[in-house]
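Listing S7. Sequence submitted for prediction.
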Amino acid sequence: MFTYNNALFKCILQILLPHTRNTHFRGRTCVYNICPCLLMQCMCVGLGCAKRSNCYFTALHFFLLAAIVASVRVKSNDMEMNPAAATETATTPGGGTARRERRFEDDASTPTSSASSAPTPTPTPTPASIAADYMRNFENIIQPGKEASMTREFNPQVAYEFERYLNPQKLKQHVLGSEKLRSILEHYARKTQQPLKKMQQQAKAIIDEIGLDRNMAIIRWCGIAITAIGQRICDGFYVNSASMANVRKDMGRCPVLYLPSHRSYMDFILMSYICYYYDIEIPGIAAGMDFHSMFGMGTMLRKTGAFFMRRSFSNDELYWDIFREYMYALVANYHIGVEFFIEGTRSRNFKALVPKVGLLSMALLPYFTGEVPDVMIVPVSVAYERVLEEQLFVYELLGVPKPKETTKGFFKALKIIDERFGKMFLDFGDPISVREFFGHDSGQRMQRAGVGGHLQKLNRQEIELIKQLANEIIYQQQRRIVINTFNLLSLYYASQLYAQRSSNIDELSRGLLHLKRIFNQLGAHVSIKASSIKADIIDAVEIHSNIVQFSQARLQFTPLAAKQLATQIDVKRMKAHALCPSTMAVAVPMLALQLYVNPCLFWLARPAYLLLAALKEQRKQEQQQHSSGSYSYDSTLSALHSYVSSMDSLFQHEFIIESNREAVEFETHLQLLLDEKVLELEASGRIKVQDNECAHVILAALAPFLCLYYQLAVTLRQIPFDIEFSNKDLLVRVQKHVEQLLQQPGGAAPHVHPYCLALDNLNIAIQALIQRGYLLKCRDSGQLRVVDAPGKCLRQLEQQLLEYCQLMPFAQYSMAANQQAQCHIAKL
């Protein structure tokens, strides 16, 4: 905490505006003409803390000041670039005025002028035209002139309508005074032999720690900050206004749960900002205690609607029951809606994680007890052209410990205002009625509202229903995630890299337009515009210049200095094996590239399974020809189904695509491969796979995961059956093994990819092998042991994975990256 003074204000401005260090604080820029003391006091008045004799400079003040300065820099840059710009204006949902902006357009749906006015028959919509129509629903809500007015009156649509509404303090009192909580506290008083009054004091302290608050002045100031910083570092916040309107029209009848995908801390901010923009009540947001302990930030988040929960409270039964009662009241008796992340944590590999059903179960308890008639669930899909934590995630995947969330770290993060992060897309799925999804009528639900909170438990059937619902939510989130230019560029570049080919801008343009057509056929939403494909590629490369760059007109990895890595990383603090700098220099850019490929796996995982199945069946048929074997059309399709199901089962924790739509998707994917001339399937059942570009791209997406599972199986086979080992021991063994392979001359070892070093994915693979019975985990000690049992032979799994790896059209995966890294190191 720093006592505010004029010199400090000037110092901060100089830090945030380095190009003005030799400029006096006067002149034509309006911010400099404001008395610094008066500016800070005005900020404090707005926040309800205007004690002029003792004004303190908190983290929140620094954040808001950075936003004001960023806003000035944005406006200054705009004036320099176009000082005489005149725009046509219109009223916007955010309460401001807007330029007439060009939304997402595509050549597939752009109308052409005609001299004839004669009516023409309506053409049948194509996948490209349907996709283009959908993308036109996205609008940039921070476009200058269209941003939200933070001074307007806020009369939002509430999520759940009541005759009388509680405020945050009365909500706490409601929980503390409820009969259910009283029965809980009496239960624990008897159990612990403590006075009831002491238990009530503990309960009040816990609810004060958990409970949300609301301060519109802080919300408005934060909105100003988000707008200013967003306009500086982003090319836009694009929201599907049609899907938002669809959500809004169903509000008011029952509680609403907003469940966004979770790739960045920005997810917290975007949802609240968008709700304010569209006049929807800002929901209560579940946040971890990491933020609660941050000086200044914890208070700010609480006053914007955050309620806090401990990361783990399985051993604290009292906390568990009180948190559950607060969540129960928040859903059943409060009007604002609730937001939480069903994946539980940020996905550091940019693909969906296995859903956690703990919070969802708590939130649905009022429905199962009959206290609310229904619950409306809104899946929310958030996509980033460049994730703010991208580089941090890459290092964490390789074992560098996650830095603790602190206010000091927040100050350091302000340097991002000089970087570009492209566009952010947010889409809302069709609301899911829990009652309709479960197929319930009012008489089927258990009436348990009067039962003590510590006795309210969901039965096994209800938990199974919730798991099915959670998988459907994840499925709907992924269906609406926008695939951007760099996602497809990363996918195409990876396929070329593995095939030892390089690409120029013309080849990349053709490749990306081909991929756009494939993804549109599958039903994905792609933000690429055919009319500006080359400009979009150049812009994407510029935004991601830390990963790739054009060198001699060819796309290449941006060199990463091994010596620089050696000074940045403390190998003693690595979570697993201490990787050497030369390994890191190869792994970092390839992992970063793969992170942007991963969002495509929702659409390509099953087509890749089918393609591998076809390759395997083709080899089998070729062997049968020499041994006079026979096959038919039905037997070939049955074999393909069997192989795809086997891979689906193996990778079920890796790609969360379970949806009970397997049969329909199999037909869709088979038709895609036939249309793209990847497969030929004759009436006799004979199958043939063509080695073309489409096949390479689809298999390139899956290749790193096949390599990872194969190298994990190889490592486990080297461990004797009678040896117990910890999860960390196994991670160290795998990373050591993979590093040795990557360090072979030229990086030419087969079936190994730097992604095999990614700890999060190794943990997912280990969990998959435990679930399938190849590994045994001791419930008490947590130690692992390789299973030696009939039907669970690790040798067979290794051979199966090796066969699939050998079917890949790529000899190796890291040679090109290794050669580039060695070339750069030699130059240094």
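Caption to Listing S7: primary sequence and predicted structure tokens for the chain studied. Residues 601-626 form the longest helix (26 residues). Residues 719 and 786 are 8 Å apart (CA to CA).
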